[in-house]
Amino acid sequence: MKKYIDNFIIAEKRVCSSQYFVLVLKHPSKLPQVLPGQFVEVEVKGNKDVYLRRPISVHDVDVENNTLSLLVQIVGKGTTTLSMLKEGDSLSLVYPLGKGFSVEGENPLLVGGGCGLAPLLYAARCYSQKGVRPDVLLGGRTADLIPIKDEFKPFANVFFATEDGSLGEKGLVTQHPVFLSSHDRIVACGPNPMMKAVARYANEKDIACEVSLENSMACGIGACLCCVADTDKGHKCVCKEGPVFDAKDLTKWSQN
Ligand SMILES: Cc1cc2nc3c(=O)[nH]c(=O)nc-3n(C[C@H](O)[C@H](O)[C@H](O)COP(=O)(O)OP(=O)(O)OC[C@H]3O[C@@H](n4cnc5c(N)ncnc54)[C@H](O)[C@@H]3O)c2cc1C
Ligand code: FES
Fold it and tell me: Which CATH superfamily is domain 4-97 in?
């Protein structure tokens, strides 16, 4: 897919919690095709300690309004600088990067945690555009750490799992009863321990499963090899050959 480098204008900024915010970015003309699970490399201006762009998943796309949204968790220098942006500011993106979700299956389960929830909203929208209403399971240690909750409701049946029981079922996502329903595909994005557990479960039950990895990145285009993952098919650049991988190619990775 062709890649672009464009300046977007921040049309809206929504603070979700002390750690998370959403930027709705307006493209200057017609937004090119972007697939769910793909990501952008965001330029961080105004902080002399941040040289590299930061990889952030496409959270949502509105083709009618030519907007692309990002859900960002504040974890360090780059994301703190991004959190200071205001509506009307401009932001340079390199996009769309990586391989997205296939949006296949008639009865999918979308599972995510932390900032891994970001790409699942656009994935749920794309399923809904195909006439499929997915189950979505959102997990976190506590309810406060699940940054978006109501946004999925127009497209999906939403379930929650929290380790302290503050929202939904108490426990890990893979212990949630929704896993007992018959899904023909699992789509997952979140912290590595959650992704490993979901991949192991899907492989044991022989359910088609796509897992998005969030390895640290630099160039974002397959040139620096700093994002390599050890898959069953060899070492793969997560930025170019992922971030979405078939769980069947992650059997070794998911056992570690
Ligand atoms: C394909 C991909 C998609 C992503 N999508 C999103 C998203 O939609 N929303 C979002 O908020 N974040 C996302 N991330 C993570 C995001 O890129 C990092 O949190 C960000 O680069 C950190 O930059 P920083 O300068 O704020 O932190 P730094 O100052 O660089 O680091 C601060 C802390 O964050 C940790 N960190 C840095 N990069 C990552 C990473 N990739 N994963 C986990 N921990 C990291 C560092 O180890 C360190 O402990 C994604 C990452 C990848 C690879
Ligand atoms: S980030 Fe440079 S090769 Fe993936």
Answer: Translation factors (2.40.30.10)
